[in-house]
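User: Show me a protein chain along with its predicted structure.
Assistant: Here is one chain, sequence first, then structure tokens.
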Amino acid sequence: MNISEKNIRRARRIDRIATVVITAGGVSIICSVILILLLIMREAWPLFAATRATASEQHQSEIDAIAVGLDEYLRVTALIDDEGLVHLQQVEDGTPAGTLRIAPPNEEASRITAVTKHGAYDYTFRWDDNSATLATFRAIPRYEAGEERAFDYRFEVQAAFPPPEVNVAIAETHARLGAGGRLARADRLADGRIFLSVVAVQEDLFGNRTETVVSHQLEAPDAGPASVIVMNGAGTRLYAGTSNGQIQVWDLSNAENPRLTEDIRAFEDSRAITALALVLGDISLAVGDATGLLSTWTPVRPFPDAEQRRMARIHTLAQHTAPIERILISMRSKSILSISGDGEMHLTHMTSNRDLLSLRSDGGVKAAAFAARANGVAVLDNANRVLVWGIDNPHPEVSFGTLFGKVQYENYDEPAFVWQSTGGTDAVEPKLSLMPLIFGSFKGTFYAMLYAVPLALFGAIYTSQFTRPRVRGLIKTTVELMAAVPTVVIGFLIALWLAPIIERNIISVLLSVGLLPAVFITFVLALQPLRRHNFVKRLERGYEFVVMVPVVLLACFVSYHLGPMVEYVLFGGDFQQWLFRETGERYDQRNAIIIAFGLGFAVIPIIFSISEDALSNVPNSLKAASMAVGASRWQTVWRVVLPAASPGIFAGGMIGFGRAVGETMIVLMATGNTPIMDWSLFNGMRTLSANIAVEIAEAPVGGTLYRVLFLSAVILFVITFMVNTSAELVRQYLRKKYAQFH
């Protein structure tokens, strides 16, 4: 039959068009996937961006200031002189922006002799008569029609303290206003002693207030003279560093009886402690010493069963070239700015242990301020020059160590992998370790595959090699329909229906794992002598499942009724109580067993369909040749069919694995979403995909949590890509190895 030239040209034209369309479609899909990955990476990449500092123009000040302040908006610096005047200057050019006055607490006080800052905005001023004032620096925004946002600045006096009854010069003063109007003042004297004054305010039922002043001289036996002190924000705890390298912790909660709770030899070489500051949250203590080393100390249990925590060094941060003189604390994160005597400054972060930024003031540092938002630093050098740095430091708490390594957190006795994105207050360390989430993803996938692969593979072998075509079509259609069930329905059913049933019958479920195979094998062995009968021979022609279904149901029935008896005999009638008593492990209703059933149900259709197709496509000539030389049907399946179909079977398993790793709704609904690292069957997990779904709604756009969630998506993408690539490589290898079978 001759084909016309016109039809040939038409066929070739259609062929070319189809080639272009298919190629364009494939390339567009690849490009789309790459673009999606780049988009996700674009949101995650700023996590690892370097901290940047932008210096303003350095300007000379005519004011002989003793302290400097910086508002959180980086608009003005506040230069405080010894007469109590606060000179506001524009950051950009140093032009005057107003003057404030700090009122002295009494008529005898005329000049300020020392200034200390704590918290975000609070200052303690000590006057020449040794009285003290506690004041707060405020920047209050206001808006006027047709104008940009403007600010009103003020110093608000919170409390005044009378002079302590001491006959030695005062070297350092700290004052605090606590709950209920409780006032606490601590003075380090020039001879190294510490003098404490506490004003307790009490109010009776009629509203009458009485003030009780209690004073103490804090003395520690065998301790060197205090070289620096600091109090917590409530004024209930005081830390002192000594000139011989000791750290003292005083409990001031009972004003009548302050107690020395710890006296620690911080450094074996007895180096002097030169600077102290409490990190945001007042739990960890930042310590600077005479060698220029910055470290942080946190209460930990010295051994697991210890009742009390003791201060221990958990982080070693920046190393200066000169003794550290000042430590300034961020009020937004665990960032710490340490300043040495030679003008060297290091911005570090306690949790991530990162040295974020290094700055230097060539003229030394007479006074310094750290903006409340940790977005700027102001320095007044020894020549009265003012320099301000704006700091871009959006994600100081993130490093490869905090994301993938063990970290020693506050209130933790040892380094751990922890995911806890939010806390009760902003002072709580964000714990953003991705390891519990990666572990949870693999844990859920492992148990799901442990359940799904045997069922799907043996089902595919039986359906493709032992059943009749009509039965095969029915079974395959039914299994493939399972894939059409929405995952949200699966998650809903196993979380609210299946989980309580398994919780009530957990011993029966565990018994069935061993009893079902045992009964199945026993029945098959018992059936062997009957194979010569025609009835059994007819069953062996693809209808074995008709007999096996009642056997499986019988095994389930026996397991169900045997479970309570076994639980009573072996576990005293309460398996969950026994589990907690003997192992310390709690039984969670939504655990790995539930996930195994739910995820397994979702991936069985994929593994079954691909495996069944691979097995069915093995040429009949191979099977016929095997059976012609005397091999049984099972021997043929094991020695011929399975090796020939192994590339397809492996691909099906890996696709199922990738499907399980990326599943969201089932693990979101059916686990406790607890980010723990434990292989136990009886507790849950949190996966990468479920974590993204849980956290993304609460993550501020552009914030650290937001970008870490995008990084989680990148990791999930990489895991899936690696699994699929590895599967394809292994499939190609198996295909070449068993090519002789085709």
